[in-house]
Amino acid sequence: MTNFLLDSDTCISLIRGNETIRNKIVLVGSEHCFISEITVAELRFGAERSNRRKQEHRIVDLVCEEFTTLTISKAIRTFAAEKARLWSIGQKLADFDLLIGATAVYHGLVLVTNNTKHFERMQSLRLENWMQDMEMEEQEE
After folding, report:
1. What pTM did the predictor assign?
2. DSSP code string of 14-59
3. Residues spanned by the domain of 62
4. Of all helices (H) and strands (E), which one includes residue 132?
5. CATH number for position 59
6. b/e per residue, 73-85, with b = 16+ CB within 10 A?
7. Tens-digit pLDDT profile for residues 39-83
8. Does any domain span residue 140?
9. Are 51 and 27 in contact (CB under 8 A)?
10. Rounded to a whole number, what is the largest CA-CA distance in the chain?
């Protein structure tokens, strides 16, 4: 069975009630979906910026309860190698995004993101855009 790492933008869509994302998670099984501690940090930052901090932090708590959070420590070497490779060819990627991508690569996960163009520079990173996949299915019907 394929396992997935949900990018921050996918989690934000889920939090905002996106049924497409929720349905896909149900389809693949939430036990096959993971999040990075970087995503947790980004979600916490968003909650801190909200006018409803307490409520938003509770929502982030629910996301953290639903999915296993992967630490970045084991992926640091993958991060460093990929960052060096990208720098050598003049294609930089923000560290947080690179850490999320490196975590997916290290653990052999497919990264689910709406920013596939942003991540496709990374070697060995498998990507899926569940929003795009569902839009294509709807167009075919």
Report:
1. 0.91
2. HHTT-HHHHHHHHHH-GGGEEEEHHHHHHHHHHHHHSTTHHHHHHH
3. 4-135
4. helix 130-140
5. 3.40.50.1010
6. eebeebbeebbee
7. 999 999 999 999 999 999 999 999 999 999 999 999 999 999 999
8. no
9. no
10. 45
